């Protein structure tokens, strides 16, 4: 449900009466394929062929990156030479596999699903701190590449390697295999176990489900700065409820079982141990796990102690702890509290290399703020004020204590900024003008900046600059470009100043009323209104079918104030939906072509929940909906996400009742035309969510449609399925709104 990047911002809805009606016409299979939709699907939303996974070498002479071909999801490794401005291919998956097929373990597939990774080939790689070696995982095996010679050597591991990482000195590699942590000394190239006794229910070195899905903690082990020890998690899921996913097209294969903690039920029991890499006794970190059961963050930075962030179950309180690796004893550096919930940011705490203190992220003062704390945890001063619009840390340059970050006071934009403690943030000069969405990467010493930039009329590009803003080049891309530029505008509307975007057909005729499609997410982790061409391509395709397409960021979404974000505490179904309606009505006062008698709504995940909620609760306004992978009953979603916002079911049952779609499905009232879409293999929002809603609607005599996506998970990476999905979406709206 998280990120972005990544959260799915998708689509779907019909008339507000309950009698039987004719289903939307299906598109004939013989018809000519939609050129844009086919291209959109085959190019992974026009992102294939663009650089990703960018890393700057320590000497600032090269920029490494991954890239696919224009219509492929198989990534290859490249190097860009800063001096010459030329890029060359370093390594291909084909060269390492030598004709063999790439295979992934079920654990690796699940981990990639949590990270929203749909690519194959090289999906990640490691770079040693001195820049001389690359670590490349592929198909459950590991390869070390000498950058000077280009020679690749396979690391002698057992099968099924997960989460491999080089040691800080670059001489060893650690990874998880068979539920335990292993390491290989690269000179001897011999595998040795670091932990022992791991099982499927008591894993060593792997992040548990909610850590990956909701905390953005994707790892379960950490090297010490001197490379002599490893800290690792032991995650005991023996008491966690198990859910089973069956491939409905192949029931003979049996089911795959996953530990999945639902609200009010048992979580994984997680503890942290420290052990010498050469083997020996594990020392377990000691903290009040009864009060703080969540191990949210682990950092072992150069200059700082082994540091943990632990949370209470309701996430209203967390502590920052320093651990003594020799004894396991901890001391409290900081306690953070919030009546609603505390936000996590995995970049923090970040220790200064001289050990004098650490940087910390907080929303204590009604917005995102970065503080400098002394080594004792005492506040030194604020580095980035809430008004600056901090989003993500790009780099903290230790030598001159300059912090680079991406963000902006305007939530529809993002730019790269730098600030020194006690100073005022200044935008890093890159020569760009006008609105846009930028994210930066900065070299360790601050002399090189890699900027990913896009705007309302430009697709993503990756530019290289000196620290002073001098442009040095651009990472080459081979992406196909869209055949049009979206016709959209971003504006604030209404007394609450909602941010909205409006996409008009390219043949728009002023004065002509058009039906409306609202693309919704509205959840507390993601916004949808961005000054981005890429974010509006599919919206333009829908608009060109004869619609006005609207996006709204109402209260409950992030990037405004903490108070704005936290209004959804104990209620997902009231303010979130009211604000969508209020914003569309306010927009219609400025754009009278919006036909408020013909409004549809579509979304995926939390957006799917909102789309279904709209036609169940307010069919007077929303006549049609397409709901993708909706959370139907929040008692069936995971603990860490749901309890953060709605509390424990036994303590706040009314929050779950008012937020459940089943509450509205069972009411004796009409609904709008509803189309439900859901992947049958979804291990995030399980398929049974949609089945429960369909069953409740059926029993209540409320017609609707259900389209299962066979074998698909919460992501839909299959180009053909993507194409067919949106054909069905637009057909539904054409039938019900036009």
Overall mean pLDDT score?
Answer: 92
Please give the CATH architecture of the domain at 35-43 and 484-737. Answer: 3-Layer(aba) Sandwich
**Major beta sheet summary:** 8 strands, mixed
Strand order of the largest sheet: 37-38-40-39-41-42-43-44
How many helices? The count is 13
- CATH homologous superfamily assignment of the domain at 35-43 and 484-737: Alpha/Beta hydrolase fold, catalytic domain
The gist of it:
This protein is of the alpha+beta class and 738 residues long.
Structure overview:
InterPro entries: AB_hydrolase_fold (IPR029058), Peptidase_S9_cat (IPR001375), Peptidase_S9B_N (IPR002469), Serine_Prot_S9B/DPPIV (IPR050278). This is S9 family peptidase. This protein has 738 residues and is of the alpha+beta class. Among the domains are: 35-43 and 484-737, 3-Layer(aba) Sandwich (Rossmann fold), CATH 3.40.50; 305-388, no CATH class. 16% of the residues lie in helices and 34% in strands. Strands 37-38-40-39-41-42-43-44 form an 8-stranded mixed sheet. Helix 1 crosses helix 13 (719-737). The longest helix has 19 residues, at 719-737.
Helix-strand blueprint:
Blueprint: H1 35-42, E1 52-56, E2 62-67, E3 74-81, E4 86-91, H2 93-97, H3 106-114, E5 120-121, E6 126-127, E7 133-138, E8 141-146, E9 152-155, E10 162-166, E11 172-177, E12 180-185, E13 190-193, E14 202-204, H4 209-213, E15 221-223, E16 229-236, E17 242-246, E18 255-259, E19 269-276, E20 283-284, E21 294-299, E22 306-311, E23 317-323, E24 330-337, E25 350-351, E26 357-362, E27 369-374, E28 379-384, E29 390-397, E30 402-407, E31 415-420, E32 426-427, E33 437-442, E34 448-455, E35 458-466, E36 471-474, E37 488-493, E38 498-503, E39 514-519, H5 537-543, E40 548-553, H6 562-565, H7 575-590, E41 594-604, H8 606-617, E42 622-628, H9 639-646, H10 653-659, H11 661-665, E43 673-679, H12 688-699, E44 705-709, H13 719-737
Keywords: Signal
InterPro entries: AB_hydrolase_fold, Peptidase_S9_cat, Peptidase_S9B_N, Serine_Prot_S9B/DPPIV
GO molecular function: dipeptidyl-peptidase activity; serine-type peptidase activity
């Amino acid at each position: 449900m998280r990120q972005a990047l990544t959260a799915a911002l998708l689509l779907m809805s019909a008339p507000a009466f309950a009698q039987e009606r004719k289903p939307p016409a299906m598109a004939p299979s013989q018809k000519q394929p939609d050129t844009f939709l086919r291209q959109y699907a085959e190019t992974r939303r026009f992102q294939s062929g663009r650089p990703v996974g960018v890393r700057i070498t320590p000497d600032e002479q090269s920029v490494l990156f991954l890239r696919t071909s224009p219509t492929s999801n198989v990534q290859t490794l490249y190097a860009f030479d800063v001096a010459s401005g030329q890029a060359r291919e370093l390594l291909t998956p084909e060269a390492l596999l030598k004709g063999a097929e790439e295979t992934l373990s079920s654990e690796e597939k699940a981990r990639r699903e949590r990270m929203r990774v749909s690519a194959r080939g090289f999906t990640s790689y490691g770079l040693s701190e001195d820049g001389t070696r690359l670590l490349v995982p592929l198909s459950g095996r590991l390869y070390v590449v000498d950058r000077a010679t280009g020679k690749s050597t396979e690391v002698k591991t057992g099968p099924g390697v997960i989460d491999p990482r080089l040691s800080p000195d670059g001489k060893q590699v650690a990874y998880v295999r068979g539920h335990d942590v292993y390491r290989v000394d690269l000179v001897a190239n011999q595998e040795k176990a670091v932990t022992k006794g791991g099982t499927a229910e008591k894993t060593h070195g792997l992040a548990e489900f909610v850590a990956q899905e909701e905390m953005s903690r994707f790892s379960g082990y950490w090297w010490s700065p001197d490379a002599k020890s490893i800290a690792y998690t032991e995650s005991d899921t023996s008491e966690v409820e198990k859910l089973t996913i069956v491939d409905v097209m192949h029931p003979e294969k049996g089911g795959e079982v996953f530990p999945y903690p639902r609200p009010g039920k048992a979580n994984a029991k997680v503890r942290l141990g420290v052990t010498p890499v050469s083997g020996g006794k594990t020392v377990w970190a000691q903290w009040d796990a009864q009060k703080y059961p969540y191990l949210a963050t682990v950092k072992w930075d150069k200059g700082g102690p082994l540091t943990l962030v632990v949370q209470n179950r309701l996430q209203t309180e967390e502590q920052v702890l320093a651990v003594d690796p020799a004894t396991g004893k901890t001391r409290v550096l900081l306690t953070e509290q919030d009546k609603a919930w505390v936000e996590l940011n995995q970049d923090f705490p970040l220790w200064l290399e001289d050990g004098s203190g650490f940087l910390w992220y907080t929303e204590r003062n009604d917005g995102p703020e970065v503080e400098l704390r002394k080594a004792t945890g005492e506040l030194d001063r604020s580095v980035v004020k809430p008004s600056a619009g901090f989003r993500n840390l790009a780099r903290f340059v230790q030598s001159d204590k300059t912090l680079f970050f991406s963000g902006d006071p305007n939530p529809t934009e993002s730019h790269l900024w730098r600030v020194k403690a006690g100073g005022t943030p200044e935008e890093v000069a890159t020569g760009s003008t006008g609105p846009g969405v930028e994210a930066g990467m900065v070299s360790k010493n601050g002399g090189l900046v890699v900027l990913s930039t896009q705007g309302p009329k430009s697709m993503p590009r990756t530019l290289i600059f000196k620290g002073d803003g001098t442009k040095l080049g651009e990472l080459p891309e081979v992406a196909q470009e869209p055949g049009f530029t979206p016709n959209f505008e971003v504006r604030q509307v209404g007394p609450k100043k909602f941010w909205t975007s409006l996409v008009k057909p390219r043949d728009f005729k002023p004065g002509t009323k058009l039906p409306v499609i609202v693309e919704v997410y509205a959840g507390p982790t993601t916004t949808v209104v961005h000054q981005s061409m890429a974010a509006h391509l599919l919206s333009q395709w829908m608009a060109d079918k004869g619609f006005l397409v609207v996006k709204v960021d109402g209260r409950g979404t992030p990037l405004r104030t903490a108070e704005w974000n936290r209004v959804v505490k104990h209620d997902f179904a009231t303010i979130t939906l009211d604000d969508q309606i209020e914003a569309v009505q306010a927009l219609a006062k400025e754009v009278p072509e919006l036909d408020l008698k013909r409004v549809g709504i579509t979304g995926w995940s939390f957006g799917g929940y909102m789309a279904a909620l709209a036609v169940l609760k307010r069919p007077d306004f929303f006549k049609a909906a397409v709901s993708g992978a909706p959370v139907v009953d929040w008692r069936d979603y995971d603990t860490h996400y749901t309890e953060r916002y709605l509390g424990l079911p036994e303590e706040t049952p009314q929050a779950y009742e008012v937020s459940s779609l089943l509450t509205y499905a069972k009411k004796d009232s009409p609904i709008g035309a509803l189309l439900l879409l859901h992947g049958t293999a979804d291990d995030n929002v399980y398929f049974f969510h949609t089945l429960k809603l369909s069953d409740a609607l059926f029993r209540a005599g409320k017609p609707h449609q259900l389209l299962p996506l066979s074998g698909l998970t919460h992501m839909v990476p299959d180009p053909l399925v993507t194409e067919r999905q949106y054909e069905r979406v637009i057909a539904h709206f054409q039938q019900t709104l036009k």
